[in-house]
# Entry
Amino acid sequence: MTPLFHPQSLCICKGKAAYNDLLPYLHIVRSRFWHRGFTYCKFVKVAKNVKLPMNATGCECKGICNDPTTCACALRNGSDFPYVSRDGGRLVEAKDVVFECGPECGCGPGCVNRTSQRGLRYRLEVFRTAKKGWAVRSWDFIPSGAPVCEYTGILARAEDMDSVLENNYIFEIDCLQTIKGLGGRERRSQDGDIPANLLDKYHDQCSESAPEFCIDAGSTGNIARFINHCCEPNLFVQCVLSTHNDLRLARVMLFAADNIPPLQELTYDYGYVLDSVLDSDGKIKQMPCYCGASVCRKRLF
Ligand SMILES: C[S@@+](CC[C@H](N)C(=O)[O-])C[C@H]1O[C@@H](n2cnc3c(N)ncnc32)[C@H](O)[C@@H]1O
# Structure
């Protein structure tokens, strides 16, 4: 068998996930010409009306960060490093937010506190399912806590997304929801995890009602856009801050929630609150869930 995706490819998608869209890509992979006419984006693109915050001040460690009592980034994480270096870096536990080292830090690229910044490490394959369209699985065993991929696309203002109902690839950056563990996303530890002053800032930054920003992978994205929802998922969403401290614009990372054997479909909980999606007439819109889990809620929304 030939993998559908080159092990190191990060972004191969253009347009909707229709079969015809993928066909040229398959050709590209097989013939190893995998740059022709396709967006290859490692990072999130940014809409013109979104201004990225200034870089946050970094730590003053040299080489790699290893002293949590002096590393400024470890202090932001509650005086500890969120990762252990085993298997190339694994998240110890799901956190409200992970503060990674960034461009202003003194440490180098080998620092464990940059674990989510190293790109794909597993051979991920896009495959067709009977009822859910395209889906993603790994050819490799993925250990619990390992970073699987980032959700990339165009970083945009949520209010500018006028085709939300037709666009299945919008990820709202809703870290307050993630922090509170609302709506079925991976249950987070309580607010005590992060320093009170930072938490106050998060509450100021994140509106209680609607998320201000989203990642639109409808036209540009990476493999994360093909990962389906499951009511009993094997991945979880983790907000990560690595260049700035604005939680509204956090990076969205997917981590393994468990040890995942090869070829098991990769899924995360989309976290919809039931009856929260309305159609253009204001009527509640419903979508059946085909995840097949014993605890399935039977609806995505
Ligand atoms: C981000 S896309 C995931 C990739 C998608 N399957 C594809 O073919 O491009 C989200 C869409 O996939 C489908 N989907 C994802 N998880 C599903 C599930 N558990 N049950 C039914 N449909 C699902 C829904 O159409 C949803 O709007």
Notes: The first strand starts at residue 13 and ends at 14. The pocket of S-adenosylmethionine is lined by residues 17, 132-135, 168-169, 225-226, 228-230, 289-291, 300 (CB under 6 Å). DSSP finds four helices and 16 strands in the chain.
